[in-house]
Amino acid sequence: MTARAWGTSILACVLAVVATVLVAPATATASGTPRAQFWDEPNFQGHKLDKDVSFDVPGGQQQDVADLSREGLSCWFCEGNWDNRIVSLSTTGGGQEPVNLIIWNSVGMPRNDGYCVFIPKGVEISNLYSKIPLRNRGGEVIEGILGPTISSFVVTTRENPDLPPECFVYAGA
Question: Which of 96, 101, 161, 173 has its CA 20 to 30 A from that of 54?
């Protein structure tokens, strides 16, 4: 085999490997892990934050994010953090398992100041600047604007998480 033929064979092998990698379907690394998703623009646009459950609790799994000012944006050239930045969200799992979500407008958990909102599994809210139907403990439905005021949250698989008495429940369809 000549040197030219040898080089052509190696090049063909390299191109075949590259083509296989580019064409092969990608799989999620956390496949099946329950997940909530957040965006900093309406309609699920802009920077995105994915939060998977990470530890076991009685009755399920969850992830506590007590201070969104400590969550940086997910690109090396981006400045800022996620505190008071979330404008759209999803509890559908984004192709993974759905979750329940509890959001607060204050930092730290548990807390007695500010307000919280429970958002059940399978909900997508495309614009938190819009009026969102919320139910209080008395069963009355009110409309509230939530965005962007989220400073902390809990992502959980628990069906009946412990909620503070002042916590609202998302009442949308």
Answer: 173
Burial call 114-149: b when 16+ CB within 10 Å, e when fewer: ebbbbbebebebebbeeebebbeeeeeeeeeebbbb
Q: Say if CB 89 and CB 125 are below 8 A apart.
A: yes
- Domains in the chain, CATH or no CATH each: 35-170 (2.60.20.10)
Confidence of residue 110 (pLDDT cuts 50, 70, 90): low
Report the candidate in 148, 146, 122 with the shortest Cα–Cα distance to residue 39: 148
The residues with which 37 forms a beta bridge, in sequence order, are: 50, 90
Tell me how far CA of residue 46 lies from CA of 38, 128, 138, in angstroms.
10, 14, 37
Among candidates 171, 143, 66, 149, which has minimal Cα distance to 105?
Answer: 149
Containing 156, the helix (H) or strand (E) segment is strand 152-156
Beta-bridged to residue 63, according to DSSP, are: 155
